[in-house]
Amino acid sequence: MENPRSELKDMNDMVCVVTGANSGLGKATATELARLGARVVMVCRDEGRGRDAQAEIKAAAELARPSRADTVDLCIADLAVQEEVYHLGETIRANYDRLDVLVNNAGVFLDTRRETVDGIEATFAVNHLAPFLLTHLVLPRLQETAGRVGEARIINVSSEAHRGASIHFDDLNAEKGYNPLQAYAQSKLANILFTHELSRRLEDTGVLVNAVHPGVVNTNIWRGSGWISRIARLFAWLYKRPEEGARSVVYLAASPEVAGVTGQYFKETEIVNPSPEAYDEKVETRLWAVSREMTGLVEDTPDESPSE
Ligand SMILES: NC(=O)c1ccc[n+]([C@@H]2O[C@H](COP(=O)([O-])OP(=O)(O)OC[C@H]3O[C@@H](n4cnc5c(N)ncnc54)[C@H](OP(=O)(O)O)[C@@H]3O)[C@@H](O)[C@H]2O)c1
């Protein structure tokens, strides 16, 4: 589906945080949101790659809106490191008095098992725990913004790869064995379970939260050296360009059609049913509790999680 910009909201004065904004879908999303007039806060782990992408996005934004300069900011944070996610949350809360859109986009597909400095399997840490934690940390800004202007939006970039997956509560760290496809699928299922649980907790707050599969897109996610990544690269010419894939993410961030829509899973711009596993409320609640423990939210903060 085409999304001519005329069908999207003017994002002037809005603040949008996009994680993983230096590459692939995140960069294309950040570019389009900046073109629509938003102040875009790019979250990147590598300063050099971040600065290069920031310069390109700024140039694209200025071309679209010559009157508006300097509307693309850069925050450096390795989302695999929880201390850095906490710091990022503080930075965003301190520097921005509104937050209209949070795009939890950064993600990895890892051919071999890696562990983060926090001792957590890296796919689960980056793809699920980091968005879970960052969302909690910036939620006060999203809620205040929704209270003031009527609405704020969270978009969790998931994947059709979640189908067939389940959450392995007995081995979330994949210590008993690592299967890259399983680890990735589990993390993308976790994105949808989180979306469902959070949307219930945020009912009537004006903060909308939806998950999206953007299509199969030719990005750096397939850059690994393992056989799965190598096979994926063989077919890359068939995949969408990042700008095409990002249309669905931008649609969820900026389309008036999404007003009031929450807790949904979108396949591109259509609402579809995710897998049956994604609807299990007991699993949603358990994953929420385990994720709070694994991110230190339980020990460090009183339970300020929105409650049902
Ligand atoms: N491509 C597809 O076909 C497809 C399909 C469905 C869903 N998705 C989802 O789309 C999202 C974006 O992926 P993509 O395909 O655009 O891949 P990509 O080009 O590799 O982009 C991923 C982004 O995430 C960043 N990132 C990775 N680990 C990070 C960390 N520890 N801290 C901070 N940033 C980190 C990357 O930064 P670096 O450049 O520094 O590595 C990069 O900016 C992912 O959530 C993925 O699961 C992709």
Question: What layout of secondary structure does this protein have?
Answer:
Layout: E1 15-19, H1 24-35, E2 39-44, H2 47-64, E3 72-76, H3 82-95, E4 101-104, H4 122-149, E5 152-157, H5 180-201, E6 207-213, H6 227-234, H7 242-254, E7 265-267, E8 270-272, H8 281-294, H9 297-300
Parallel strand pairs: 1-2, 1-4, 2-3, 4-5, 5-6, 6-7
Antiparallel strand pairs: 7-8
Helix pairs in contact: 1-2, 1-7, 3-4, 4-5, 5-8
Bound molecules: NADP nicotinamide-adenine-dinucleotide phosphate.
Describe this protein's structure.
By secondary structure, the chain is α/β, with parallel strands linked by helices. The protein has one domain: Rossmann fold. It has nine helices and eight strands. The chain has helices spanning 24-35, 47-64, 82-95, 122-149, 180-201, 227-234, 242-254, 281-294, 297-300; strands at residues 15-19, 39-44, 72-76, 101-104, 152-157, 207-213, 265-267, 270-272. It has an eight-stranded mixed β-sheet, sandwiched between helices. α1 (24-35) runs parallel beside α2 (47-64), α3 (82-95) packs parallel to α4 (122-149) and α4 runs parallel beside α5. The mean pLDDT is 94. The structure holds NADP nicotinamide-adenine-dinucleotide phosphate. Residues 20, 22-26, 45-46, 49, 78-80, 105-108, 126, 157, 159, 213-214, 216-217, 219-221 line the site of NADP nicotinamide-adenine-dinucleotide phosphate (NAP).
